[in-house]
Amino acid sequence: MLDRYCYPTKQPHFPLSFKKRASRDEFEANRGELRALNCLICDHDHFNEIGQVDRYGFYYPTGICQVCGNVQHIKYYNEQSLILFYSNVFRDIYGRQTPAEIFEGQVERGHQLVWFCTDYLKEDAAVLEIGTGCGGILKAFQEKGCRVTGVDFDPRFIEYGQKQGLDVRKGDISAVDSAEKFDLIIISHVLEYIVEPVPFLQKAMDHLAVGGQIYIEVPSLDHVAEGGYNYDLLNYYQNAHVIHFSVATLTTLLHKVGLKILKNDNFICCLVSKSEEEVKDIEANFSDMRKKQIRLIDSIEKKRTSLLGRVCRKIKNKFMS
Fold this sequence. Notes:
Elements: H1 18-30, E1 35-36, E2 47-53, E3 59-65, E4 71-73, E5 75-76, H2 79-88, H3 90-94, H4 99-117, E6 126-130, H5 136-143, E7 147-152, H6 155-163, E8 167-170, E9 182-188, H7 197-205, E10 208-217, H8 221-225, H9 233-236, E11 243-244, H10 247-257, E12 259-264, E13 269-274, H11 286-304, H12 307-320
Helix pairs in contact: 4-5, 7-10
């Protein structure tokens, strides 16, 4: 493991103000012991550690599963630490956009999602978004004539979404009545935060109407290998993310719960539906997937140190300065 991925680090990869650094250090001093995680894809508990630090300098033990090749947190925060992080640290570190600013950006993104799903989106579709924030994505679907519902935990976002005429409820998917069914369920930049993705997806599937779809969007290692984040894992790693999907590992997780991909890209954006086929033995592919994952990580590191990677970073730094 290269020194740049070791903890502690003298300087975080992303510069922090004095206030942000103090917030991070206070959390690190008080977070308590991390708990070991099994692989979120195959449930095995043997990893090769490939990193210890994220972009902000948080302790971030990251490993690649020795069985299936999944890349994830190998130790994670306990419940009290998570409450401390999201209550006192998350907004300090990740920025302080107003609900109005967040909503505006979500509406723009929502129009892109409408386009992505348009071939499968029926008129007057019932749409649910899990982790809707201010509801801007839902607003774009509402403008398309859909009936929309969202769930979130942040009271500021919930209030703002409700003022925009949206049905936004406090909580997770349990805030939705068990009898409510939806033609489209949106899970955008949520799944990478989930410690138990299998039961999470199964609960979402329980709310799918017959012939319905789930839209899933997550950050992707394939995207990094194609130049995203300037080929740099330290631009990509952030301690709030539990798992680092690739197209291969996300596809495997979806097959595990009985979902099939209708369309996808390497970003990853994908539209899925319930599969009518019996779930196959996914373990048969673990060895090949692990080899593919190792090659993917190796290719990212090689591209980061290549001339192309250095040029990309210089261009980015020029425009950011």
